[in-house]
Amino acid sequence: MRTLHIHIGHGKTGSSYLQSCFALSRDAMAAAGREYPRPSTAAAAAKGDISSGNGRMLINAMNNRLARWLLATRLRAGSGDVVFSSEFLFFVLSRKGAPEKLRRFAQAAGFQRISMLLFIRDPFDHLPSVYQQRVKRGGFTGAIDALTRGYDIPTRCAWLIRAFKGMAEVKLTVRNYSRVRGDLTGAVEEWAGLSAGALARPDSGVVNRSLSAAELTVQRVFNARLGRCGPIVADQFCNLLPDIKADFTAPSKPAGRRMIKRLRADIDFVNAHIDEADRYSLLRKEAEPGFGEAQTVTLTRAQIEAVAAGVAEALKRGRPTKVRR
C-alpha cells in the first residue's frame, strides 16, 4: 500500500535536526523505497544549518490548484513512498478544512495511506523553547510570562487528533519529544519503516540550538533596535557555534498555573488518546537564577565574531537599516 509519510513537527521538537538527517540520507531513503523530495534548503540542511524541510511543497499543493496538479503528477509517476517534513505543516493542518485538502492531494498523487508523525512536548519544557524562538526569529523583546497567555499548542494538538482520528486512511503517530529526544532519529526511523541507523546524523549533533542568557540578551537588544533580525545574530550563534550550552528560563509560578488551568481540558484529551509513555507531564523546572535580568553580559571572542559576521553579511546584502517599530 503506497504511503504518504508526513512529519509535521510541531515547533521546537527537533525538526531542523531531523531535516538535516533527511537531507543527508536521501539516497539511503530512496534505496529503502522512501523518496524525500529535495527542498531548496537541502544543502544548508545537510551542513547542519537551520532549515524548514520540504513541507512547503506539500503546503503549496494543498492550497493551490496548479501546484497540486504539478506535484501530484510528479509523485504519481513514482512507485514508492514519499516523505515530507516541516513544522509549518502542524499549523497548516490544524486549520479547518485542511484534513480534507490533504486527503484530496493524497488521492490525486496516488497514495492509499497517510502516515503522520506529530511530536508533542511537555508544556513547561516547551514554552521556554518557544520563548527562545520568538526572540530569535520573531523579534520579541518581552518576558516569558507574556507568552503564557497565548500558548495554545496542546489545544492545536487536541484539534488535530479529533480531526484525523476519524479518517480511515490516516494513521497519526504521536510521540513526546521530552521523552525521546535522546534517540529522536530512532523514533523517526521506526515510524517511517526504516532500518535502525538508516538516517545519517549531522556532524554537529545540534541544529538550531537555544541561546545562552548572554546571547539571548544581545538578540533582544538587536530586536529592540532593528525588529526581526535573527539571521544577523541568533542564526550566527546557532550555525557557527552549535556546541555552546543554552540557559533555561521559565514562567513565574502564577503565570504557569493560569496557563495550565486554561489548557487542562485539552491536555487531558491528548493524554487520553496517546500511549501512556508519551503523555504530557506537567512537572516544571525552575529558571536559572536571575535569567533575563542581568545588566552585564559576557561574550567570548567567538560569539562576538559570530555577531560581527552576521552584521557584515547583512551590510553586504544591503539590508535596510531603518528602525522598525
Keywords:
disordered C terminus; 8% strand; 325 residues; 5-stranded parallel β-sheet; 50% helix; 16 helices; alpha/beta
The coarse overall form would be globular
Which percent range fits the helix content? Answer: 40-55%
Mean pLDDT: 91
Strand order of the largest sheet: 2-3-1-4-5
Helix segment tally: 16
Order of helices and strands: EHHEHHHEHHEHHHEHHHHHH
Task: Report low-confidence residues grouped into runs of 5 or more.
Answer: 321-325
Beta-strand residue percentage:
5-15%
Radius of gyration: 20 Å
Distance between the termini: 53 Å
Count of DSSP E strands? 5
What structural class do helix, strand and pairing data support? alpha/beta
Tell me about the largest β-sheet: 5 strands, parallel
Structure, described:
- The protein has 16 helices and five strands.
- It has 325 residues and is α/β, with parallel strands linked by helices.
- It has a five-stranded parallel beta sheet, sandwiched between helices.
- It is globular, with a radius of gyration of 20 Å.
- The N and C termini lie far apart (53 Å).
Quick take:
With 325 residues, this protein is of the alpha/beta class. It has helices at 15-24, 26-31, 42-46, 55-63, 65-76, 88-93, 98-108, 123-138, 145-148, 153-164, 177-180, 184-192, 213-226, 234-240, 253-272, 301-317; strands spanning 3-7, 34-35, 81-85, 113-120, 170-176.
